[in-house]
Amino acid sequence: GQSLEQPSEVTAVEGAIVQINCTYQTSGFYGLSWYQQHDGGAPTFLSYNALDGLEETGRFSSFLSRSDSYGYLLLQELQMKDSASYFCAVRTILTGGGNKLTFGTGTQLKVEL
Amino acid sequence: EPEVTQTPSHQVTQMGQEVILRCVPISNHLYFYWYRQILGQKVEFLVSFYNNEISEKSEIFDDQFSVERPDGSNFTLKIRSTKLEDSAMYFCASSGSLAGSYEQYFGPGTRLTVT
Predict the structure, then answer these.
(1) Residue B97 has what pLDDT?
(2) What pLDDT was estimated at residue B14?
(3) What Cα–Cα distance (Å) separates residue A6 from each residue in A41, A54, B50?
(4) Hey, is the C-beta of B84 within 8 angstroms of any chain A C-beta?
């Protein structure tokens, strides 16, 4: 089976940097994705790592270490609008086509003034 | 920017009734998915669909569930006889184009309330 662990809640101040960690145990691992979800909204794709190392997309970066089964999402220059839930998700390739996302439990990020 | 759309945004139904949730995936995508999220919990995979057939389904996706692509644009999830525990947000997603992107793009969801 698959399991992913994330901290349940993180609080940070506006302008700061925050790191959200994710550890996983899985079979058929292909890559690690990160999604943002505001209350009642759809998960929105943020970043993806298939290989070890850092991927940078604007204020968001994501890191993966396959040997450690570990990744993190780094958010810089935090803004109030970044307050949301953040999910890591393991991507596995389906033999019948496409891929499947197995989501972590999510981290609620609260950005304060 | 192309997006996944879903209707209705909110569906209230009585236990035992059939419901059909509708989705219009991004037009050049090839792979379609349904996920659900019970209030306060994580997003869970239900089913994936490619080339007019199911490519994988989860344990949640039992005989009460079915999916269909009735035409070139719509993708539906049917729950034959709803149960209270089916109350959740249901998200449709799509991925894959001729360019080979596998990112999944989610629709805004349908909130299903079973009473």
Answers:
(1) 64
(2) 97
(3) 20, 19, 31
(4) no
> Is the Cβ pair B56, A43 closer than 8 Å?
no
* Overall size of chain B counted in residues: 115
Bridging pattern class, strands B10-13 and B110-114:
parallel
At B1 the pLDDT is: 75
**Under an 8 A CB cutoff, do B55 and A98 touch?**
yes
**Is the per-residue pLDDT at B98 higher than 60?**
no
What is the spatial distance between Cα A44 and Cα A60, in angstroms, rounded to a whole number? 13
Asked if B43 has any chain A CB less than 8 Å from its own CB, the reply is: yes
B90/A contact by beta carbon, under 8 A = no
Inter-CA distances, A110 with A22, A42, A72, Å: 18, 18, 17
Rounded to whole angstroms, how far apart are CA atoms A74 and A63?
Answer: 8
| Interface with B, mutate which of A2, A24, A103, A105 (most B CBs under 10 A) | A103
Mutant choice from B102, B110, B111, B113 vs A, greatest count of A C-beta within 10 A: B102
What is the per-residue pLDDT for A98? 80
- A43 to B107: CB separation less than 8 angstroms, yes or no: no
Residue A43, preceding peptide bond in cis (omega within 30° of 0)? no
Structure confidence at residue A93 as a pLDDT band (50, 70, 90): confident
- What is the percent of chain A where pLDDT is above 90? 82
A22: chain B residues, CB-CB within 8 Å: none
Q: How many residues does chain A have?
A: 113
Counting runs of H as helices and runs of E as strands, what totals does chain B give? 0, 11
